[in-house]
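Second attempt. The first submission of Ribosomal RNA small subunit methyltransferase G had a stray character pasted in from the spreadsheet, which I only caught after the job came back as garbage. Lesson logged: always re-copy from the clean sequence file. Corrected sequence (228 aa) follows.
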Amino acid sequence: MAESDQLPEAPAVAREVFTGDAWPRAEAYAHILAGPGVVRGLLGPREVPRIWDRHLLNCAVVADVVPPEASLVDIGSGAGLPGIVLAIVRPDVTVTLLEPLLRRTTFLDECVAELKLPNVSVVRGRAEELAGKQVFDVASARAVAPLDRLLSWSMPLLREGGQLLAMKGERAAGELDAADEQLRLYGVRTAELVTVGRGRVDPPTTLVRVVAGRPARSAQGARRRRKR
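This time the job returned cleanly.
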């Protein structure tokens, strides 16, 4: 894949976040995003100067709250944010990049091959199609859908006690309040705002963290009806 000369130099903190083998992979991924990622419409050209701060580092600090040796599904992975970044930072985590669009899964497959990420697989499909076939410890999502809709996609993919990590930024508190009915419907154990990366990224990354419980019967019935 060709590189772009528009990419700014990585900030000093990047070497503190991406250590060891993660550093050359992070650099290579930054160039992929700035070049082919822009050319193929997965990232806007105005985002290139912000690739390190807004995208790579912002996603990397999410790894702070991912349990050791977890299985993780990145819902609506797009250009691989945050899934590829988490796979780079945490080689102990098994990452599934879930994306319905062919042009995006083709890009993701190429990224995984070029970055040599043995802990990553790419699946073309929607969360609803994967439900009942696989379960995960963690589901991640960034700029995919409002939280109430994201809950209906992610909860069926999580084992009991698994967690959704939704990157939500300034809208996090409002979306959490708006999803109150869905949270009850799915019988979640806890739902809270979590801030990660304080002192390393500015602004820190805000997550909605939802720990899956046992869904109410109405939620189970709704899922069965959608499959018919």
